[in-house]
Each structure stands twice: as structure tokens, then as C-alpha cells.
Amino acid sequence: MAIAVYPGSFDPITYGHIDIVRRARKLFSKLYVAVVANPHKSPLFTAEERVEITQAALAEAGINGLEVISFDGLLIDCARERSADAIVRGLRANSDFEYEFQMALTNRDLAPEFESVFFMTAGRYSFLASSMVKEVCAYGGDVSTFVPNSVQTALQEKLHPET
Ligand code: PNS
């Protein structure tokens, strides 16, 4: 069975990401969840916080036996360092397709040895995005259906430190 890297900003991890991790784990002998240190969007959480939050969320979801790492620079270099065979990404709505297609083709051009593998998200998570979760929490909304408790706590501490 092959080794895979599942990269992302994970700012923060949501039930949508967790669903992809759960399913990808069944197909790969080793799965790295790779938190990009410097995403192009400016993150709410630092890279260290995102790694910790991701680890806590996966543990809370009962998912063990995988490694959460952070990486800087090109994804293909991270994949090479981990001797990966595949890059895992989740696909939600149609709107994800163009960006994912562009990324997959760029990565294939740079490193044809890696296969990009896409998991269709579960229907109930097809609208779910970290950016929405942050916005809902920032305005005091309930995010308990989008993220596990540990992530809710981290969001609360970051966005509403006074409470
Ligand atoms: O969760 P995101 O923000 O959609 O994840 C995007 C990510 C981290 C997969 C992408 O930005 C990435 O791979 N960044 C590392 C830099 C890189 O390799 N760029 C060239 C590939 S397009």
C-alpha cells in the first residue's frame, strides 16, 4: 500500500477535512496530514497552533496512527522527503475543481512521480470551509456542527479571548 500526503492550510481543520482523512487512511498504509506553514491567505492560527489543533481534533475524532507535520516551500519537496506516492485532496463543489486541477497539473509537471488523488467530500460537508467557520465564530455563532470541541475551544480562545 502506498504512502500519501494530505496538504492544506487547516486554519482550522473542520469535519470536512476529518472526513477526508478518515477515508484516505483506509487506502494508504501511511498518511501524513501536512500543514502548510505559510499559506497564501494570512492564517488565523500559527503553523504550530494549526499542527496542535489538527492533532487534537483527529485524536478527538478517534483517528490515530497518522502523522501531522508542517511544511514550508513546495509541496512536492515535502512529498519527496516523506517518500510519498500520492497527494490527497478533497473536492467539494464544482468551484473547487479549477483550482485543484491547476494545482494537480502544476505538481505533475514539477514531479510526475506523484499521483494526485481526490476524494469527493461527503454531501453534508460540501458547503463547509474553514473561512466560513472562522466568520461564524467571530460573530458569535455556533460552530459545533462544523468542528470538534477542541477546535471550538481554540477558535473561542483566539477570537474571543475576553470570554
Ligand atoms: O487548504 P488549502 O489552502 O487549499 O491548501 C493549499 C495547499 C497548501 C495545498 C497549496 O497552497 C500548496 O501546496 N502550497 C505549497 C506551495 C506549492 O507547492 N505550490 C505549488 C503547487 S500549486
The number of helices is 6
Largest sheet: 5 strands, parallel
Strand order of the largest sheet: 3-2-1-4-5
- Percentage of residues in DSSP E strands: 15-25%
Any overview of this molecule?
The structure is a single chain. The chain has 163 residues and is α/β, with parallel strands linked by helices. Helices cover 43% and strands 18% of the residues. The chain contains 6 helices and 5 strands; from the N terminus they run βαβαβαβαβαα. It has helices at 15-27, 47-60, 75-81, 95-110, 130-138, 149-159; strands at 3-8, 30-36, 67-71, 86-91, 115-120. Strands 3-2-1-4-5 form a 5-stranded parallel beta sheet, with helices on both faces. The termini are far apart. The mean pLDDT is 96. It binds 4'-phosphopantetheine (PNS). 4'-phosphopantetheine binds at residues 7-9, 36, 39, 74-75, 103, 106-107.
Short key terms for the protein model shown above:
single chain, 163 residues, alpha/beta, binds 4'-phosphopantetheine
How are the secondary structure elements laid out?
Layout: E1 3-8, H1 15-27, E2 30-36, H2 47-60, E3 67-71, H3 75-81, E4 86-91, H4 95-110, E5 115-120, H5 130-138, H6 149-159
Parallel strand pairs: 1-2, 1-4, 2-3, 4-5
Helix pairs in contact: 2-6
This protein binds 4'-phosphopantetheine.
4'-phosphopantetheine binds at residues 7-9, 36, 39, 74-75, 103, 106-107.
Short overview:
The protein is α/β, with parallel strands linked by helices and 163 residues long.
